[in-house]
């Protein structure tokens, strides 16, 4: 058996401030740093990781770094840098014109229902941004070409990324359908382990 671990980054500064973040490269908060370390402690009990994938945004890469340090996996470090594959295909959903705005203030401006549609529908994009469907389309070829082969080889894979790119990954492995995924909440800093046997998903759960 082998595992695919999906890890949403720890709390970011704009998570704390309830702002639309998207591709803005904001740092982790102190709570986010602590969440990343706890994630590493939880994953340490699972044992092995062979390869790490991440978005290019620092809240994801820093989460991976802090977690791997807690796991004491020395083989992933070279000259003080974590050896992982970073790609913008795994970046968060681009919220376009909403980026930087407080979510409550945005609801007051555009109406709660409109903002709910932008945030929770599958195929409706906010002004100048991506729908969740767009994110799934972006993630799918990267997952198929680079991540899936590692899983099929029996390797243990960690993806450190974001709520929406991880939702896209969940669709790709067959855990959810497109019409279900918008309702799925992914907490920050909580490792979600998908276990494979003979190339098929046999279990999935959050570590605790």
Description of the structure:
This protein is of the alpha/beta class. Helices cover 41% and strands 17% of the residues. The protein has 8 helices and 8 strands. The strands form 2 sheets. A 6-stranded mixed sheet has the order 5-2-6-1-7-8. A two-stranded antiparallel sheet has the order 3-4. Strand 7 and strand 8 form a beta hairpin. Helix 2 crosses helix 3, helix 4 packs across helix 5 and helix 6 packs across helix 7. It is globular, with a radius of gyration of 17 Å. The relative contact order is 0.22. The model has no long low-confidence stretch (mean pLDDT 96).
Secondary-structure content class: alpha/beta
General shape: globular
- The tally of strands reads 8
| DSSP helix fraction | 40-55%
Radius of gyration: 17 Å
Strand content: 15-25%
Q: What count of helical segments does DSSP give?
A: 8
What is the terminal separation in angstroms?
A: 20 Å
Overall pLDDT level: 96
| Sheet having the most strands | 6 strands, mixed
How do the helices and strands follow one another from N- to C-terminus? EHHEHEEEHHHEHHEE
Low-confidence stretches: none
Order of strands in the sheet with most strands: 5-2-6-1-7-8
């Amino acid at each position: 058996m082998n595992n695919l671990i999906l890890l949403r980054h720890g709390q970011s500064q704009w998570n704390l401030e309830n702002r639309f973040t998207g591709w803005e490269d904001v740092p982790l908060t102190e709570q986010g740093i602590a969440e990343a370390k706890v994630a590493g402690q939880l994953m340490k009990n699972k044992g092995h990781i062979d390869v790490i994938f991440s978005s290019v945004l620092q809240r994801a890469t820093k989460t991976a770094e802090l977690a791997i340090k807690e796991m004491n996996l020395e083989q992933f470090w070279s000259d003080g840098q974590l050896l992982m594959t970073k790609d913008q295909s795994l970046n968060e959903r681009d919220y376009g014109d909403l980026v930087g705005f407080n979510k409550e203030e945005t609801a007051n401006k555009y109406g709660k229902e409109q903002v709910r549609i932008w945030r929770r529908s599958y195929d409706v994009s906010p002004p100048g941004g991506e729908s969740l469907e767009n994110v799934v389309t972006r993630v799918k070829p990267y997952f198929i070409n680079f991540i899936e082969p590692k899983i099929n080889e029996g390797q243990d894979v960690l993806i450190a990324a974001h709520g929406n790119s991880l939702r896209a990954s969940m669709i790709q492995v067959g855990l959810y359908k497109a019409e279900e995924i918008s309702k799925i909440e992914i907490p920050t800093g909580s490792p979600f382990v998908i276990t494979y046997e003979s190339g098929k998903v046999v279990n999935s759960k959050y570590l605790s």
